[in-house]
Amino acid sequence: MRRFSILLLSALLIFAFTTVSMANPTIKGDFRYNIYKDETKDDENYAQSDLRVSIEDDLSDSLHVFAKFRVKNETDKDNGEMYADEYYVKYKESWGSIKAGHYGYKFTPSRVLLKSAEYHEFPSVDIMAATTFNTSVDGLTFDVLYQPYADDEEEEIGAGAYGLTADYNAGNWGAKISYADLAKPAAGSSSSSDADLLALDVYYKLDNGMKFFVNAVDYSANDKKYSRYGSKGIDGIDPVLGFQWKKVAGSKFDVSAEYAINPRFEDTDAEYNGLALGAKYQITKNTKLEFEHYVKSDDETKTMGRIRYKF
To answer: Which residue ranges does the record assign to the Porin domain (predicted)?
Structure first.
């Protein structure tokens, strides 16, 4: 069923791109070459190349299609095959939109560096539908997310996972609150706990390009044994403070910092507060140099340098 659904949606996307006579698809590329020094790995120094190509088109005033393909290769790993990273069909009307396909949905969109695996988002699954409802209040929308069945590789997500989100964007400030039920206990389990979470993201922007934000994801209600999150070590509420400054003082530099207030990995011997620093420099319109530094434990860090070219 899962593979059939993927093939069906892929066929619909291909059909949409190739059969509409007035179609004029937009094709974009994003190439990244990353160099890492990761003290948590046996081979601390390694490199990764990552190519992403997307194609999208408005087939009508209401219908939009998108597909992104990706191929990446890491030093000493046999992983250079291309795969469909994201694809969806989106239907828009005055009341809102419906989006169906394979894609992720961020509960804390302000957070960029401390991704915490997939803790801050509804995981990418083979088929997911999201319905956005507009309201009479300018900037206020509601999203309803639904994943109809389990992914073979992520059985913990569970059939029938869903999410509810309220999002308010007033321009220079905004807030988003989400609830998600991501899994049911395993069959025959004595536990009745779902793997659910609450998430909050609040931000404030200044006119000079600065952005301050605080977000938090609460896993307190989870039964760790069945939660896809519990085994990763975060226990309870995971609040993060963040700062971003684009075009620092009118320059070509962007900087950012994110700090996790509560210690992470509380059920392991590697208790620490997550910290990440980032910087970007715009060389040309399409080329950037990027730098990221992560504190991964009390005495281990990860540093990445990247050259990125968009075309």
So the answer is: 12-295
How far from 220 is each of 38, 196, 197, 229, 285, CA to CA, in Å?
A: 31, 9, 8, 11, 45
Asked if 148 and 9 count as a contact pair (C-beta separation under 8 A), the reply is no
Average per-residue pLDDT for the chain: 79
CB 165 within 8 A of CB 107: yes
User: Is the CB of residue 199 less than 8 Å from the CB of residue 108?
Assistant: yes
100 neighbors 88 (Cβ within 8 angstroms): yes
In order of their start, the domains of the chain are: 2-20+30-310 (2.40.160.10)
Successive 10-residue mean pLDDT values, the chain, 311 residues: 49 54 80 89 83 94 95 74 89 95 86 63 65 94 82 50 91 93 53 67 94 86 48 64 95 94 57 82 97 81 94 94
| Whole-structure pTM value | 0.80
Residue 12, token pair as written in the block? 């619909």
The DSSP bridge partners found for residue 266 are: none
DSSP 7: H
- For residue 99, what are the CA distances in angstroms to 91, 136, 147, 290, 300? 6, 21, 12, 32, 41
